[in-house]
Amino acid sequence: xxxxxxxxxxxxxxxxxxxxxxxxxxxxxxxxxxxxxxxxxxxxxxxxxxxxxxxxxxxxxxxxxxxxxxxxxxxxxxxxxxxxxxxxxxxxxxxxxxxxxxxxxxxxxxxxxxxxxxxxx
Amino acid sequence: xxxxxxxxxxxxxxxxxxxxxxxxxxxxxxxxxxxxxxxxxxxxxxxxxxxxxxxxxxxxxxxxxxxxxxxxxxxxxxxxxxxxxxxxxxxxxxxxxxxxxxxxxxxxxxxxxxxxxxxxx
Lengths: 121, 121
Prior knowledge:
Two copies of one chain form a homodimer. By secondary structure, the first copy, chain A, is mainly β. Chain A is 12% helix and 34% strand. Chain A has a four-stranded mixed sheet, covered by helices on one side. In chain A, strands 3-4 form a two-stranded antiparallel ribbon.
């Protein structure tokens, strides 16, 4: 397990004031967006080097390897950085539910908001 | 266009210290994750009420209706809130490229990072 980022990567990242980037987790099997979390440099380095998804928990202020308590692990398939370096997209095989509520996705858990559907002008 | 959130919604949102939540934009036609941005309460209210995706630009400190300068608009299909109220998933029809670089997705633009693929234990 590496706690340091690969050579040259940190220059491409744009961490926020708390030293974090966003991480979107997408189901590699059906493309469902499962959850969003945050990573600092160490959590990203561990995600890239271990095959498991690591976050920095803002509420608990600690590292969090997804699934360690729930068993609902996320196995990394790929990690992509966005154009401005402040977000990664992790495609992962999700074992069980991604959400702590037991729903497959955290967005199923919060649910839909009433929204006007856009029409081309 | 409404600048106020629907009754009862703001109590479900957990804005960060800058008054923002994250917004993941997913292509409603092929499920590709296109980009991630941030919304404040007004940007979310406008997204829900106009059929177009609005962000708050952290770098420019201004509202940003996606596509106004590029023509690459995002037409809202659905908006879902996550379990802890700090992120929305917007499914949208993307006209043209989501990324300012001309790539369809901001994650194609940044590209893949070398990552160990996870294996079930």
